[in-house]
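Our collaborator T.R. sent over the components below with a one-line note: 'Predict the complex.' Nothing else. No constraints on interfaces, no templates requested, no preferences about which chain binds where. So this is a plain run: every listed entity goes in together, and whatever single assembly comes back becomes the starting point for the next discussion.
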Amino acid sequence: MARIVQKFGGTSVADLDRIRNVAARVKAEVDAGNEVAVVVSAMAGTTNQLVDWATNVGSIHDAREYDAIVATGEQVTVGLLAIALQNLGVDARSWLGWQVPVHTDDVHGAARIERIDADAISARLAAGQVAVIAGFQGIGPDGRITTLGRGGSDTSAVAMAAALKADRCDIYTDVDGVYTTDPRIAPKAQKLSQITFEEMLEMASSGAKVLQTRSVAMAMRHNVNLQVLSSFTHAEGTFVVSEDSVVEQETISGIAYSPDEAKLTIVGLADKPGVAAIVFGALANHHVNVDMIVQSASTKTKKTDISFSVGRADMDKAVKIINEIKDQLAFDVVDAAPNVAKISVVGTAMRTQPGVAKTMFETLAAKGVNLHVISTSEIKISVLIDAEYTELAVRSLHTAFGLDSDQ
Amino acid sequence: MARIVQKFGGTSVADLDRIRNVAARVKAEVDAGNEVAVVVSAMAGTTNQLVDWATNVGSIHDAREYDAIVATGEQVTVGLLAIALQNLGVDARSWLGWQVPVHTDDVHGAARIERIDADAISARLAAGQVAVIAGFQGIGPDGRITTLGRGGSDTSAVAMAAALKADRCDIYTDVDGVYTTDPRIAPKAQKLSQITFEEMLEMASSGAKVLQTRSVAMAMRHNVNLQVLSSFTHAEGTFVVSEDSVVEQETISGIAYSPDEAKLTIVGLADKPGVAAIVFGALANHHVNVDMIVQSASTKTKKTDISFSVGRADMDKAVKIINEIKDQLAFDVVDAAPNVAKISVVGTAMRTQPGVAKTMFETLAAKGVNLHVISTSEIKISVLIDAEYTELAVRSLHTAFGLDSDQ
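Returned assembly:
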């Protein structure tokens, strides 16, 4: 017997038929003798309608009211799934964020889970009842409904698994696992049977959308065994596990890419201490996330160039912010390149196996791909390239690192 | 300065434009220096969609899950209205049933309000904030969401007015008040400027749909000053008040009718003590509401007939129930007449003014209308007639009692 948290996203509960399908999935775990808590999202499309209403009823935005409105999406799904389970003879009840309760901070619309009092649910699980829990929502310190922001239901599921000391947290989605890269770009991509938390974290933050970065980080922190699998097939998924439970490791686990990047270059910046702090401080104050940064060698004129990448949606805003502090900085001009992509090779084993960077750069050079910015971590190398080379670069690297399914 | 509870039904908040219109109505009361609590229903159509989902996801019905699902309708409206008010510069926040809290019993789907802790809202009102309260919902003794059943939002508003010791409770709807009878049948019907609780109660239970019986009974019990008015015009509505605040009183306040009645007659029933108890006990056990009852004089054969009316939707069920207890009762046959209507004349003053029954019966006789069953209360006389005479009877009585607008 195991204690399992299952999480089903919006496409898995998009209509009554799919909700009944989810109920059958839950029942299978119950029939196998397991204790089951299920975390669900809103029916696909519902949240968009609610957000649309909340943002169009007036121009003033009250995040507390926004949360009360959008949280109804998950409230409907938990009720429907509980009924569907009862129809299969499974004892089940719904739990809203405030009923669990899932305590969060007061940052409405993007709240962080602070504490889950899982005792009540734990007791029900032990008594054989399935808990159907609304994802994405909690209760703030003032007793009002909060929501966790985008991808919040994954985070809810992982947090619940940690609080319930679950043996496993199964994230059901519309793909059947984590792949070595995006199969739409590289048909020879292979499903990974397992991946470490650190690798998954790098993959997620480098564009692989199968799991939210935030939920992976939480799983790593609490050592929650994650599985990513499909709600539409019965194939085994990908296990996301801690590094020490991985017996044998490939050099590279996967190639991730993020096509929606932009590169900014501040040209002719006075090369004196503190300028970087001014630039990135100003961007951070305006909530612009900066990813890769490179500073060119100073010239004899005591001037330097700083290049960095931001999400493309933030590009114009970033240019404006930099120009607003031109007086403080003294520079010539800000160049903005909207069409760049980030390509990353990810693998825990690169720590101990040199030559990954060499293989990566040689492979890209052989295809004539120019590298704008390079950044590395212990288990990842990322490069910024012209976006038009994205597919070519991903496929070439996938082959070069021996990840193709026929290799 | 007064403390006012306003209630807006589903058609008044059917879309974002109407919600903004409601916000303007609320602002007008705030600008007049009043403290305002607003109770709202779900957007028209929303509840039907939610009920549809909850009843079609499976055949098993869990009223607790049903309540969690359908309560989301009001949750969306309160959030949207709070935002709309803020956009007009009015300080406002939403309150869900469990946040107020509105304590109910545990009869999910048809819960009764047991107690409202209005202190938190009262304090906010005193501080100048508008409270936007979800109607129709509360929290049960087990901490789960309850709903009050059909027309529950009127009841929520009246209960809230009582708890807040409000000076007035304004029920906004799609008609502009209570009429002497249905203007669709009798074009000469007049809007009443006031009506007593008792009369309103009889009107409501006799088919006038403007207010739910249950909310009127509660208003009477707590002496809440009710006003019924339109959210689409600025005409003054009808005040529902206690009898002692009415200075001068017409004999008859109105003519109500209920077209969806059925008459059952148990023919040749053994005339011995206890048979009525058996008949109506069996019907009550199966939740069939019986309205008017008449028993014919016993014949020499020691047999009698009992006639009574039920809602037409319950007719077949009632026949079946009676036939199932035939052995206990001993009777010849149950006759069912599906096409009958109840016509009622209502007026507090009939207590002291004799001749109302005479006028009623003579008026109907002159038109050739046959009376099947007659029942009377202190302030009401009801008759059961063939349904095809409904409009004729209503118009004739309206004229006979001097209610026509040109009289």
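Summary for T.R.: The mean pLDDT of chain A is 91.
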